[in-house]
Amino acid sequence: xxxxxxxxxxxxxxxxxxxxxxxxxxxxxxxxxxxxxxxxxxxxxxxxxxxxxxxxxxxxxxxxxxxxxxxxxxxxxxxxxxxxxxxxxxxxxxxxxxxxxxxxxxxxxxxxxxxxxxxxxxxxxxxxxxxxxxxxxxxxxxxxxxxxxxxxxxxxxxxxxxxxxxxxxxxxxxxxxxxxxxxxxxxxxxxxxxxxxxxxxxxxxxxxxxxxxxxxxxxxxxxxxxxxxxxxxxxxxxxxxxxxxxxxxxxxxxxxxxxxxxxxxxxxxxxxxxxxxxxxxxxxxxxxxxxxxxxxxxxxxxxxxxxxxxxxxxxxxxxxxxxxxxxxxxxxxxxxxxxx
Amino acid sequence: xxxxxxxxxxxxxxxxxxxxxxxxxxxxxxxxxxxxxxxxxxxxxxxxxxxxxxxxxxxxxxxxxxxxxxxxxxxxxxxxxxxxxxxxxxxxxxxxxxxxxxxxxxxxxxxxxxxxxxxxxxxxxxxxxxxxxxxxxxxxxxxxxxxxxxxxxxxxxxxxxxxxxxxxxxxxxxxxxxxxxxxxxxxxxxxxxxxxxxxxxxxxxxxxxxxxxxxxxxxxxxxxxxxxxxxxxxxxxxxxxxxxxxxxxxxxxxxxxxxxxxxxxxxxxxxxxxxxxxxxxxxxxxxxxxxxxxxxxxxxxxxxxxxxxxxxxxxxxxxxxxxxxxxxxxxxxxxxxxxxxxxxxxxxxxxxxxxxxxxxxxxxxxxxxxxxxxxxxxxxx
Lengths: 340, 381
Fold this sequence. Notes:
The complex is a heterodimer of chains A (340) and B (381).
Chain A (H helix, E strand, L loop, with lengths): L1 E12 L7 E12 L3 E5 L6 H8 L7 E6 L2 E2 L4 H10 E4 L13 H12 L5 H14 L5 H5 L8 H13 L5 E5 L7 H18 L2 E6 L2 H7 L2 E6 L2 E7 H6 L4 H9 L7 H17 L32 E5 L2 E4 L7 H13 L1
Parallel strand pairs in A: 3-8, 3-9, 6-7, 7-8
Antiparallel strand pairs in A: 1-2, 1-4, 4-5, 9-10, 10-12, 11-12
Helix pairs in contact in A: 3-4, 3-6, 6-7
Chain B lengths: L6 E12 L5 E12 L3 E5 L6 H8 L7 E10 L7 E2 L5 H7 L4 E4 L3 H4 L6 H12 L5 H14 L16 H12 L6 E5 L7 H18 L2 E6 L2 H7 L2 E6 L2 E7 H4 L6 H8 L49 E2 L21 E2 L44
Helix pairs in contact in B: 4-5, 5-6, 6-7
């Protein structure tokens, strides 16, 4: 049963002296209790805009959000209760906590908003319980600290505890570990994973890191310039990517297990491919047809038309003309996936 | 110590402090050698002193940072050795950028937002190549931009008109403007996404093959360093804890911290395995350490670790230079680690299996509970 359903979400921003920029284009997804959906893409692909729209921090141009089957409240008391259920963990724990307030203050506020009667010792205890649940111990000591006395990992734990304070059903984690040191990232991700299980949370994990997306989610959506170009079970999408963009993303990630020789060969192939391509057209967003076609190694004339969503495996879809029907195209892509 | 003929830079016993009531000892007795044409990687978490070390090597430390000890020697191609710490005034200005250039982490902040790229290239040449006239300067700037894969017509533009990856390319072009022998890259790709990062790395590798400069590559991303560098140093709490050939350390780390860092990266394509990171936090560098700085976070600690500081010693059971084919400018056999586990006098039995250099122990080995993401089942679509 999906907890949060987002259907046909479109967010467009006005630009000075230009056309509107469609940051998110007709995107639909649903989050299920106890499961994580990963949203992967490069910077500027619209990942954070999806989070902000789903949290109702910005108003989408069109689209519906349903929580537990009911249309999400858009204002006043209904919006407040929506926000109790849908909480966000932001990327930067140095910016998302107020430097003037103690940890206890950060956690007590949402607790009081959630249940107005909580005061005094019961409130303190609730704060301590929250800190304990994110492994910040001893809770009495941590509660009295200010954010500057905590490390990045500890701050992010406070941010997670704050998100849990309203006892939400849905957690939207927007790059929750990208600002943290590598050695602590996994601990935070493992914590989120455990909380998701214990509290049966529905989670959206936004990241640019394919490897952690594979480990911590059951489903992955790959986003490019506002459009989901591929979605499917996480192992399928990462190990067997169908869309040329996902293939490029997967091949660009560092691979410490590769041999020197294979790295040098791969580099030479990429350099030849780059030299053969004319002109970089990185920043332009193509409104018509496939948005990836200017960077796509398999671009064809038909790509100027909007690509179809094609099932390439069980529950695995790619938005690409390569898979539209002809068996020949399939073979062509299989061989291409081999060399990238 | 290796032969001086193939060295470009040697730094010995570098110590840097940030002055305060209790000084922060950010770099503690670091010794490194950079060989001609190689990439030396420096890995470590934020606050381990890797950027401070880079500033010390380029003589760019500013108060309250102060180098309290150590010697830096630069060996120019076909010239006589230069004591970098003795340089002052015009000689120091001549050394920086001409001999040793730096690519900073944040290209967004390192480029001037209010002057055109042309003007910024002019500044470099006016200061360091006053004999060039305007046409020659413009021509050289165009060449440099073309070399890093940017349309020279862009040089009339401003930094904000470029994407993050293009800005980083411009930074690299500027670092190479005066044909330096050494380029220090401090997290050159950290702010970029993987695809652009890959392009920049390819570009660096190509330019290095063409121009033959040596690189010190600093980043927290160990998986990246294993790929790009020839040798690497792992720093922890201002000290070098392991010094190893990059192509071997990935599968045979000797220091428990290196082991922990390697385990922090999920392998994207391989089988799902234990993922744990390194529990705990780095120590406060204002304190003096009694024993090993990593001891509180180390899963393999034993008695001497809390009381005796380890020194860099040859790692037990590692391949020496014999039996390995090494490319020109590379020599192995100096795999060193600062860990009592590898000290036969303290631990006659040798290091635990996972740190002993036996192959493929990352996949199993440590007998802790396996904590792989629980969503591995695939779930319903």
